[in-house]
What does this fold into?
Amino acid sequence: MRMKEYQFWFVVGSQFLYGPEVLETVASRAAEMAQWMNASGQLPCEIVYKVTAKTHKEIVDVVREANYDPACAGVITWCHTFSPSKMWINGLAGLQKPYCHFATQYNREIPNEEIDMDFMNLNQAAHGDREHGFIGARLRIPRKVIAGYWQDEDVLKRLGDWMRAAVGVAFSKSLKVMRFGDNMREVAVTEGDKVEVQAKLGWQVNTWPVGQLVQVMNQVTEDEIDQLMAQYKAEYDFATDDLETVRYQAREEIAMKKMLDQEGCMAFSNTFQDLYGMKQLPGLASQHLMAQGYGYGGEGDWKVAAMTAILKAMSEGQTGGTAFMEDYTYHLAPGQEYSLGAHMLEVCPSVAAQRPRIEVHPLGIGDREAPARLVFEGHAGPAIVVSLIDMGGRLRLICQDIQCVKPIMDMPNLPVARVMWRAMPDLTTGLTCWITAGGAHHTVLSYDVTASQMRDWARMMDIEFVHIHKGTTVDSLEQDLFLSDLAWKLK
It folds into this structure.
């Protein structure tokens, strides 16, 4: 499903105490609010007003319906009047979708002349939302609390950001990852418990033999390759005359896409150590697939492949870009400390500062022909890098704030896509924190998704979240990791 196909259900709390006229007003206002917020153009998905819930049964029924509707990506609750929270217990305890408690009220200001007891009985959000908030805390359910006036831009932005994180949850729950062969030999961080990941995050991670991919490649027609070559020429500059090499990448891309689509997979991994029957490691092929929304992981790293796909789904319609990334080397000149991120071939062109170039160069590893790849620089701007690791018994999501910059040198002899950035709070402190937390060398870099959204996603998925930001110190991080370790062992 695409972003616009998801809905968020607006469930408003009240009770019979106030009489039918008040309940009609509550329902009318709730529908008006949903319509206005949808028309604002500031939300990525539609809010659908479902019910003003007044009984235990109404709440249980709407939750059950939400759980089984694939279009429903989450539930937003608000208590216009006082809604006794005991009647919410069974419904909230059974809720399997992301949950946002929207603490707002219909009127922006207290009407000095009109306020009377009738007004007080109708407008009890300050009263009702606190009662509703208690039961969320008492049940210890993962939830997002968004407080503020429903027409304010910053409130709608926070709500929209949460929606995107919730869509990431829905996408994750149905995500299938295709591994072409196994992961690179002897690499620790690309290992992981696929059963635990499927139980926790929903991912189906399975392996297809490289020989099957080669069979599909051999069935690709020249007409299919011609069509994809025309697409390459429309999107990229050709900086090579070796068109046969580029055509081979097109053959690989077409075959991989056929297999991915046939199996319903939105992420894939491969490794240069398993290219049996192939002439080139897919470079341009993998990059162009990522530009279409597929996730990728090098060296068989299926976890980063899945996370790349999830962040791409969360950021659909935004223009900053999201890419598979790898930390390669540092620039440690005093006052100019930068990380250089790249990969042998596979960085998504969505993060490019300029029109990418197709070039052909030897790879130096893999014992295959020189592959075609896209070469470009990443653009400047704030971003995050994200790493999901298996700690044995639990998953940890590590997120670091970074500031991408225009590379400070041309690097004319480095024919790869690259991004340069300042790590927060600074390179050495950030690096120490990253290594202390166990962050991998493979990450997802995104200019669109924020650390706050990743925190929301991790909370909805019930996994550990570690954030390295401008205020982080080594001491504070070590203390947080120690306490987190204790807490997660008790869960």
In short: The two ends are 33 Å apart (CA to CA). DSSP finds 15 helices and 19 strands in the chain.
